[in-house]
Structure formats: structure tokens, C-alpha cells
């Protein structure tokens, strides 16, 4: 498993009033608590992993302690790895909440479709909170239901956890980076070289991303910003360029060209060629001849 639980909590005058419902998935550990705190109750918590807590009740009577100051506990809070959280009850309270402990690398992967890994790391190093939970609570309750039913594949629960991450973090400023980011000329040369080394055959996007040491999702975003095309569209256009060169400069038949460039068959090349060029390979070759 990627996630390794490393959490420490010390409480005083706070008690669980029902069994803790939890499940450890590959990348996250959600746990649902029902608890009661007395006036003056205190809690001190720290984890080696980032975590989210969503409270299903008004918890404004619980104060977050920050040195000599305090403030009401938000209904939803993201706590970065290694950040201590201390709370105190100002009156008796019965409440329930969902904690989602997560693997830090997984959280970076969740965010890297909208920003660079460096930006994701910056975002995950900062606490975040929401007083109006809105859709957060809906997602959290779906995850609680899954703790009991376990009716779906693990990917479902992990996807819900990923949605909580995206909903609670303020990705607006960092997300602007995704809309502005471009590949450098040197990076584009490396991508072209990697593609050309394959002889005009289509490559998995992950292989192109690896040429410039970027995650597949972030590469796809900045590649489209740079070229105006998705990696798949760009490769299709480049492959048809190779096909036109072979049809023009060699005597290879259309079926042979298709085989050399990795198309499944002649019909596949013909269909793709027509989509890009507007006519079949045979018609294009005749017109040029």
C-alpha cells in the first residue's frame, strides 16, 4: 500500500460515542467518528500525512488554538502533513465528522492534472478551510456510506477522496498556471525527437511526457497550450506527414505505408489520411503524379 498511517492524537474530555468506521484503501484512509466533548475539552493532533476533516454539525463552539489567540473551527479543514492542530471546546457538544488521511504523493497526482507538480506541492503545504461545506458534505457522506457498504471498487472511494481534495483546496491561483504554461522550444525539440525516433508510429502520451520529465496529465495540458492540439491530434498530423513523404518519395503501396507507420491496416491509414488531408492516400498520390 502507498498510504502508511502515522497519526498522533491526544485528547482530554472528548470521547467517542460510537464505533469508529474506517477503511484503508491503497492511497487514503477515511474514518467516520461520532464523539462528544465537554466544556474545556481539548485535542492536539498531528500527522505525517495530509488530511481533510469534514464536520456534519455546527462546530463553531470548538475553537482552534493558535498561540494566545483562537477562532471557531471551520466545518471543513485541510491540514498539511506535519502541521499540528489544537482545539478546545467552549461548551458541551455532540458531533460527527469524517477524517480522510491521504498519501501525499497521491494528492500531488490528483492535482497535477490542473497544475505542475511544483504548484501542487506548494498548495498541499498550505492549510485550507471552508465554513460553507456545500458539495463537500455531499461527497463526504457518499464516502461514509461506502465505509459501510463497500459496494464499489476501491477506485470509487479514492475518487471521492480526490474530489474532496479538489473541492477544499483553493486551486484558482495555481490553476491559472495551467492556462498559461507552455513547453519551451528545447522541450518541444525533445518531444519531436522522441516521436521521430519511433519512425512515425504512434506513442503513448506517457512516453512523450517522459521525454521532458513531466507527468502525463500536466504534459497533456501544457502541450495543448503550446501547439493548440492534444498529443493525440499532434501525433496523428505528424504520422500523416510521414505517410505523405513515403507516398511521394517511395514506391511503397498504401498497405505497406500503413504497416511501416503502425496503422492497424490500410483502411485505418486511409480513414485517418482523409480526415487530415481531405482525400484518400491513393487520390493524393495520383494528383501529385
TrEMBL record:
Keywords: DNA-binding, Transcription, Transcription regulation. Gene3D superfamilies: Homeodomain-like (1.10.10.60). Residues 189-287 form the HTH araC/xylS-type domain. It holds the Pfam family HTH_18. InterPro entries: AraC_XylS_family_regulators, Homeodomain-like_sf, HTH_AraC, HTH_AraC-typ_CS. One of its GO terms (molecular function) is DNA-binding transcription factor activity. This is HTH araC/xylS-type domain-containing protein.
